[in-house]
Design goal:
The protein is 25% helix and 25% strand. By secondary structure, the protein is an alpha+beta fold. The strands form four sheets. The chain has a seven-stranded mixed beta sheet. The chain has a six-stranded mixed beta sheet with strand order 1-6-7-8-3-15, covered by helices on one side. A three-stranded antiparallel beta sheet has the order 2-5-4, with no helix packed on it. Strand 16 and strand 17 form a beta hairpin. The longest helix is centred in the first third of the chain and has 18 residues.
Length: 447
């Protein structure tokens, strides 16, 4: 593994450049925000040196990013605020829209991009390509490499929003950087997610979700050591898995087919004492919850959970497992589920909530998040397109395994998959050619 050092060379607080008197002083978290767990979420992007940029261009890159970020924060003003305890309910934080600013950190790495071990995300975190300051809900780190390329890491407090929200923020920032028209006018109205009166919900939600404290979230029991890895999955493998899932005439999505394959692999990595295992899928409520617009900024996530016996997963064909995946996801992709979930949370306030599987209370579980609409190749800030865009977390205590799928930056139908998994599962996934450890060659940085 290529060990390298990161030296921090400066930091700036970037505030919104405009003064909008119509901004609210604060935003209360919606019920679905209370389900976010407050986990920090980090996105990694790597940019090779552009031939037209001179070696001294890093300073101008920093200044350009600051200027465009300040303008972007005019649209996404909560991201420049602070998340503080609510005076009336200490268990539930609020977002102060006080233009405290976002933190932008500059750094320099003692290696070049093509020498990085992209497979080992733990090394990225240990080498400090990400630094987390809890005083700022949005933090950006710009790291210069010896080759003249650079990385951008964006870390968000999950109370600000979900992947859809962060993707819209990053897309807007890149559009402003390139002096393009802004494609999204963000909708910050948290009151679009109000509960019904009186609240009512399906009793199954009591088994799926639980009220918990920040301390419980920070101290989630982790029966297994988790490792963080990054994989490349080529388009041919994805298409082959989908063909397997469709073998009985059913039409299954690529994610459903991929999930069925992974779930079948998962049984090779768990102790024999477990007779069942679960998969979960993060589901976006936009387009399902009737009160929410596609440009809504905040959390609109739920989780679908499927359970199967180890014996069935071993014996059944991928197409049969894909049917279980499809049925499990379909249970939550509707307005009724999301309105019930909002009401369930209302009935258990004040406090934070979490899915029981995420707290690690329900045996071996792997959660999959699909980022097929998340911007990757599009994230050009005026210095060229990235060779990689992916996601990871600095959280050390996680009760389940996670897979997070993104389209590759080369736009050829392949995926990058970020994994937080136990070592036995990593070994099972790597036992054939579908999960390929990410390398500079996959990113076309080496021949």
């Amino acid at each position: 593994m290529n060990m390298f050092e990161v030296c921090f060379t400066g930091e700036s607080i970037v505030k919104a450049s405009g003064n909008n008197p119509e901004r609210p002083h604060s935003l209360s978290l919606s019920n679905l925000d209370l389900l976010s767990g407050r986990f920090p979420v980090t996105y990694f992007y790597f940019y090779p040196k552009q031939p037209h940029l001179v070696s001294s261009a890093f300073g101008s890159i920093i200044e350009s990013l600051k200027t465009s970020l300040a303008e972007t924060l005019n649209y996404f003003y909560p991201f420049a605020g602070q998340i503080v305890p609510n005076e009336t309910s200490r268990e539930e934080p609020i977002i102060l829209c006080n233009n405290n600013g976002a933190l932008l950190v500059q750094a320099r790495a003692t290696t070049d991009i093509k020498s990085l071990d992209f497979y080992n995300l733990d090394a990225f975190l240990q080498a400090k390509l990400v630094r987390v300051n809890p005083d700022f809900p949005l933090q950006i780190q710009v790291t210069e490499f010896e080759c003249g390329g650079f990385s951008l890491t964006f870390t968000f407090d999950h109370a600000l929003g979900d992947a859809s929200s962060f993707g819209k923020f990053l897309t807007t920032w890149s559009e402003i950087s390139r002096k393009q028209p802004v494609s999204c006018v963000p909708d910050h109205r948290r009151n679009l997610l109000l509960p019904r009166s009186p609240p009512r919900y399906h009793p199954l939600l009591e088994k799926r979700f639980i009220k918990c404290s920040v301390e419980e979230i920070k101290n989630i029991p982790t029966p297994k050591t988790l490792i963080k890895r990054l994989y490349h999955i080529d388009a041919a493998s994805i298409n082959a898995l989908q063909a397997l899932a469709n073998v009985n005439g059913e039409s299954r999505t690529k994610i459903e087919a991929f999930s069925a394959y992974v779930w079948k692999k998962m049984v090779d990595s768990i102790e024999s004492s477990h007779k069942t295992c679960k998969m979960g899928w993060l589901v976006d409520g936009r387009g399902r919850l009737e009160t929410v617009t596609s440009s809504y900024i905040g959390n609109v996530l739920s989780i679908a959970v499927g359970e199967a016996t180890v014996e069935n997963l071993k014996q059944n064909h991928v197409s049969e497992i894909a049917n279980i995946v499809h049925e499990s996801i379909t249970e939550v992709t509707n307005n009724t589920h999301f309105t019930d979930l909002i009401d369930w949370i209302e009935s258990h306030r004040p406090g934070l909530m979490l899915a029981r599987v995420v707290l690690g209370q329900e045996g071996p579980t792997l959660v999959l998040s699909s980022g097929r609409r998340f911007p990757v190749a599009e994230l050009d800030f005026g210095f060229g397109a990235p060779v990689l865009g992916t996601v990871c977390s600095t959280v050390e205590k996680i009760g389940v395994g996670y897979l997070n799928q993104r389209p590759s930056a080369c736009n050829d139908g392949s995926w990058s998959v970020s994994a937080i998994v136990w070592p036995e599962l990593a070994a099972a996934l790597e036992s054939d050619s579908v999960f390929q450890p990410m390398s500079a060659k996959h990113l076309q940085l080496q021949t």
